[in-house]
Specification:
This protein is of the alpha+beta class. The chain contains 31 helices and 13 strands.
Length: 861
């Protein structure tokens, strides 16, 4: 007989086992065989780095002004690195990204693309450096004289070419991150190697598109409007991060590195500036000296960085699709662009380009306007980028949110101004010249503006004492911090309009499809109801942490399912939610897969077809035994509802349920699992098992199933049995419910699905009428997720018993219907998983977590 898949195969004696000490050499040899070019380059880069200065004698780095179009340095410079750290990072990248790219492209294609792309990018970079030198001599001189080549040129061209083969969502996300990082590095660091890497990335993207044109022509994933928001927010945040990293640096020479000269150390003190400004003939020097003095110090540095903090907060708002964040980003960048333009105009009017060059150690005298124009251009481009995509930012806050925001910010501004004026009047002698009311008020207003405003507005007072410095340098920080905190708070998730539960139930009765066996769960308390604007359809969901988590399949006619899924995804995108369709059946999952979404099986529904159900045969021996034993012991079944049940019966049901919950290591689960509250529904039927004394031995609740406008079955929800009572009470109640439902003309009985539980797919014979069908094939990108969920199910089994419950239901001979979790972007798996946990256990306390942990360690009691 063939060996069962659950057992480990015993290797034949002729096949030697690989000793553990040879495992790593074997893997290394495998890597060399699969990716020889990347491994070879990593070895060469390591050798060159170890040789250090001796390698420079025969491996000269490429310098732009010394290069010819056919110079060998163009190729050999790809092995050189500026320092040991750069070489180490390049080697790590070659052994990870390089090997992955080579395996994806094939060795020959990888080598040809890398060599031709690197040489071409180096030559294009040479031309760009000469062109930049004409526009910006300071930066251009550095580009012409600094070493250009590095292994990152090869990595950029091959990595971007291979990235074309990534799935659509990951491809766009990788491109956004790579180009934002490279753009920021080029604009701030400004090294020729950085420029070469950016050019290589662009050429690699072109090479990949030419080799796999079908991969770049695919449309966007439906429901991923947030992807546009993410890309724009990343671009905005990238500029902010680059600006912060350049503060105080003396090594960055890119066009945007000019921002750091605002924070240069002052070469004047307050008395010197006062003396200069007192001389009417030294007006230009007064402006310069005042600016340099006021922009120095820790307080000024912190104040200058706070607008960047505001922009980071706004970038988070852009990611969430907030309309107010779009307006704030546009306003802030227009302000910064205006200040930069005023600064450039002021320097041009004074004809003092050397001010900038003195802080950058560069000679900018031929054309300072080129460098000064970049701080104007970048904010303007960000404004243009945001406005061109303004339709992606439609999420508005609740009425009055930003009115309260401006009131609170305004009060903080008034409080700071009052403190400056009153405090300054007390220590008026600590200012040069002596402080006056008008001077303190005017300088307080100027101090509240971003530091670049000092290039346009000259303060009247200069603080000399410690208290005076606190008043004008540290207090203005407070309104900016208040604004940042309030702005972040105002950008929380916005609630959406929801329909009534009764309207949802009407739709379930009228248009629910046959697969919507759990649709009635959507009518419970705590659900939000979305309805389609174009057809009779509804989706029940809960919002948790930016995720719209559905509780069942959409309620709609089968022919409208594709349209409803698309509309619900669009609704979620407009509210900056991640759409996650949870516990949906195959027809819904197929529609999401057609839209480019990812899906993974999270449960399996057990369904009894009632038409030919008899419970005869050996397979149902346990079921018949339970029914016969009930007859002998005088246990009978009774159908009722919560409203019809007597007070005594209700009290017994409540006591049984409370005892069951108290015996568990965790609080009662919610979301798709009902409790006592969900029993009080006229359409929810209760089936009780009672002995001769009317003592309730067990209780089950059954939700209605509607399909095509008629009631077609029941779904099992609530299950409780009395501790120490009639032992096979659940087998008895489920069997009795199935036979009674069949007698009433119903077609199907659903025993629901157990989360994180599936019928075993290994160690079984070919599927028969009482065995689960073969699982649907899993996409490669979902295989890891399936293994993770299987592992999670095994870990949680001692505390929750999901799999034991699933195995219990198998004795009724059901058919199996897989249930899925579907979502657009695998990068959102973490937030979706957290949302599922919050939905099932919304009130889990620390003590509850500890109880669960002890149960997981010790096993079930």
């Amino acid at each position: 007989m063939p060996e069962r898949s659950g057992r480990a195969a015993i290797p034949p004696e002729s096949e030697p086992l690989t000793p553990a000490r040879w495992a790593w050499p074997a893997r290394a040899g495998h890597a060399v065989v699969r990716a020889p070019v990347s491994v070879g380059l990593a070895v060469l880069v390591t050798v060159v780095a170890l040789l250090g200065a001796r390698a420079s004698e025969w491996l000269e780095p490429a310098v732009v002004q010394d290069l010819g179009l056919t110079g060998p340095e163009v190729v050999t410079s790809l092995l050189s690195s500026s320092n040991a750290w750069s070489a180490a990072l390049a080697v790590i990248a070659l052994l990870t990204v390089g090997i992955a790219a080579e395996r994806a492209m094939g060795t020959l294609r990888y080598a040809v693309t890398g060599l031709l792309g690197s040489v071409t990018s180096m030559l294009v970079t040479v031309a760009l450096c000469h062109g930049i030198a004409r526009l910006d001599p300071g930066w251009g001189q550095h580009l012409l004289t600094a070493p250009m080549g590095s292994p990152w040129v090869w990595l950029a061209v091959t990595g971007l070419a291979a990235s074309v083969r990534l799935p659509t969502m990951w491809r766009r996300r990788a491109w956004a991150a790579i180009f934002v990082v490279l753009g920021v590095v080029v604009l701030f660091a400004g090294e020729p190697g950085d420029l070469a890497a950016l050019v290589s990335a662009l050429l690699g993207l072109l090479a990949g598109a030419l080799q796999w044109p079908d991969r770049v022509r695919r449309g966007p994933v439906v429901g991923s409007r947030s992807e546009v928001r993410v890309l724009i927010a990343t671009a905005v945040a990238g500029v902010v991060v680059g600006t912060v990293l350049s503060l105080g640096s003396t090594h960055l020479v890119g066009p945007l590195s000019a921002t750091r000269f605002v924070f240069a150390q002052a070469s004047y003190d307050a008395n010197q500036v006062a003396a200069i400004c007192a001389d009417a003939n030294r007006g230009r020097e007064c402006v310069r000296a005042t600016y340099v003095l006021k922009s120095a110090g820790v307080g000024a540095l912190v104040l200058a960085m706070l607008p960047l903090l505001i922009q980071l907060v706004l970038a988070e708002g852009l990611r969430r699709g907030r309309w107010a964040a779009m307006v704030g980003t546009v306003a802030l960048n227009l302000l910064l662009a205006g200040l930069a333009a005023a600064h450039a105009a002021l320097l041009s009017w004074h004809q003092e380009p050397w001010i900038l060059g003195r802080h950058l150690d560069l000679d900018l005298s031929p054309w300072p306007g080129a460098r000064l124009g970049v701080p104007i251009l970048v904010p303007a481009l960000l404004v243009l980028l945001v406005l061109l995509n303004r339709r992606a930012f439609r999420v508005r806050a609740a009425p009055g949110t930003y009115l309260r925001f401006w009131w609170r910010v305004g009060l903080s501004v008034l409080a700071v101004l009052l403190a400056i004026v009153l405090g300054g009047a007390v220590v008026a002698d600590q200012f040069v010249p002596r402080a006056t009311f008008s001077g303190l008020l005017g300088d307080g207003l100027v101090a509240l503006l971003p530091s670049p405003a000092l290039t346009v507005l000259t303060p009247l007072l200069l603080p000399e004492g410690e208290i005076a410095k606190v008043l004008l340098e540290w207090l203005p920080i407070i309104p900016w911090l208040v604004a940042a905190v309030l702005l972040f708070s105002a950008q929380r998730t916005v609630s959406a309009r929801t329909e009534s539960r009764e309207h949802y139930r009407e739709l379930v009765r009228a248009v629910a499809p046959r697969t919507a066996t759990l649709a009635w769960i959507g009518s419970w308390q705590g659900r939000r109801i979305w309805t389609s604007p174009t057809c009779r359809a509804a989706v029940a969901y809960q919002a948790h942490g930016g995720v719209a988590l559905t509780v069942a399949d959409p309620v709609c006619a089968e022919q409208d399912l594709a349209q409803v899924v698309r509309e619900f995804a669009q609704f979620c995108a407009e509210h900056s939610w991640v759409p996650a369709l949870y516990s949906v059946h195959a027809p819904t999952a197929d529609q999401t897969e057609a839209l480019g979404w990812f899906r993974v099986q999270v449960a399996e529904e057990t369904v009894l077809e009632l038409t030919n159900l008899t419970f005869s045969g050996k397979a149902f021996q346990d079921v018949r035994t339970a029914m016969n034993r009930a007859t002998k012991e005088g246990v009978t079944s009774t159908w009722t509802t919560w409203a019809e049940a007597s007070l005594r019966t209700r009290a017994q049901i409540s006591a049984i349920s409370e005892e069951w919950v108290a015996d568990k290591a965790l609080p009662e689960m919610e979301f798709t699992l009902g409790g006592l509250a969900e029993l009080d529904d006229p359409e929810v039927r209760l089936l009780l098992a009672q002995d001769a004394d009317a003592v309730v031995q067990g209780v089950t609740s059954w939700l209605p199933i509607y399909a095509d406008g008629a009631k077609t079955g029941l779904t099992l929800d609530f299950m409780r049995r009395r501790e120490g009572g009639f032992r096979p009470v659940m087998e008895f109640l489920i069997a009795r419910a199935a036979l009674d439902a069949k007698a009433d003309g119903l077609r199907v009985l659903s025993l629901s699905g157990a989360p994180l539980a599936r019928a075993p797919q290994a160690d079984v014979d070919p599927p028969g009428p009482e065995q689960p069908p073969e699982a649907a094939p899993v996409a490669p990108e979902d295989e890891t997720l399936v293994q993770l969920l299987d592992l999670l199910g095994r870990i949680l089994e001692p505390a929750y018993g999901f799999r034991s419950l699933h195995a219990f239901k198998a004795k009724f001979g059901p058919t199996y219907a897989p249930m899925y979790l579907c979502f657009p972007d695998p990068a959102d798996l973490a937030v979706v998983g957290r949302a599922v946990a919050q939905a099932y256990l919304p009130e889990m306390s620390l003590s509850g977590l500890l109880r669960v942990g002890r149960t997981l360690v010790r096993g079930p009691s």
